[in-house]
Amino acid sequence: MSRAVFGHGVFVYEPDHAIAAFGSPAAVAEAVAAMDMSHAWLRVHGRDGPWRTGANLVLATALRDRGIAVGVWGWVDGNDVDRDIAHARFAIDRYAPDAYIADIETGESGAHWTPERALRFAAAVRATLGMRPLVVSSYGRILSVAPEVMAAVDGVVDAFAPQVYWFRGPDAAMLTAPGLPSGLVVDDPVSYAALCLHQWRQVVTRPLVLTGQAYWGEAEGWTEELAERKLAAFLTGFDRYDEIVGLNWWNLAHARAMSPRMREMIAAARLGRRFRA
Predict the structure, then answer these.
(1) β-strands 134-139, 159-163: how paired?
(2) Could you read off the pLDDT of 184-220 as tens digits, one per residue?
(3) pLDDT tens-digit map of 45-62
(4) What are the backbone dihedrals phi and psi of residue 22, each rounded to the nearest 5 degrees, phi first?
(5) 220 falls within a domain
(6) 181 to 37, 74, 112, 186, 244: CA distances (angstroms)
(7) Is 200 helix (H, G, I), strand (E, B) or coil?
């Protein structure tokens, strides 16, 4: 499988923020390499079109120069599938990426996907990519939100990337479902990851790339310190690497994400070696 999917990596949401924070595109690439990462996924479009193209282009070049595979991703909302396809095709043509990742989250910010719409979108993007990987990123607890949409594209995509953002999960109600792995406990990122992987395996057969939480904010009381503690617990306790083909993070490029302490912990874990033959 392509290094743009297989192995350890990171999402990049705001390329200009990353360049400013680290000092240069080359410094961003060096930071990615220092965390033992093989890929970076750059946000290059949203629902309405291209996203920060200038910064993304120079960052993509710097990453490739450092030996980091570049995937590009975009938010697609399903309300106008022709528009979604056009944005994906433009991004693939503009960046010549090693992979394309579609962010498909039914119900989020007005997104409306049906199995039929998702299949039409995925088939069109698959044809544009040729042999390069197509990945779909979506909710971690997929059984809760339109699992039939993911099932519809299971035969078309190369991998799925569950968004395993643990916050204080799982709660007690999440652990009442039958058939869960043994030993899961509340308020534990390792248990939450196991729960999400279990749910995805009820829906799809394709390989999984787990996207972990390296950010704070968004939820009340979810502070930088708490997010760092939970990240440390995940890095120490997660052992289901045989269930995934990759592990990456949301995200490198935001004021409330990937603190210096988080980067230190991730680098020390040498996660890339988990996926090397």
Answers:
(1) parallel
(2) 999 999 999 999 999 999 999 999 999 999 999 999 9
(3) 999 999 999 999 999 999
(4) -95, -15
(5) yes
(6) 29, 33, 32, 13, 16
(7) helix
Closest CA to 90 of 133, 48, 138: 48
- Distances in Å between the Cα of 34 and the Cα atoms of 44, 98, 164, 233, 248 are 24, 21, 23, 21, 14
Number of structural domains (the chain) is 1
Domain containing residue 92: CATH number? 3.20.20.80
- Residue 145 structure tokens: 């939100």
Tokens 């044809």 belong to 127
Cα–Cα distance for residue pair 229/223, rounded to 1 Å: 10
In a domain, 78, yes or no: yes
Nearest to 37 by CA among 208, 249, 212: 249
Instruction: Residue 46: give the domain boundaries.
Output: 7-275
- Helices and strands per DSSP (H, E), number in the chain: 9, 9
In a domain, 73, yes or no: yes
Tell whether 75 is covered by a domain.
yes
Residues 6+ apart with CB under 8 A from 111: 76, 77, 78, 79, 104, 105
Single-letter amino acid code for the residue at 129: L
- What tokens were used for 239? 């052992």
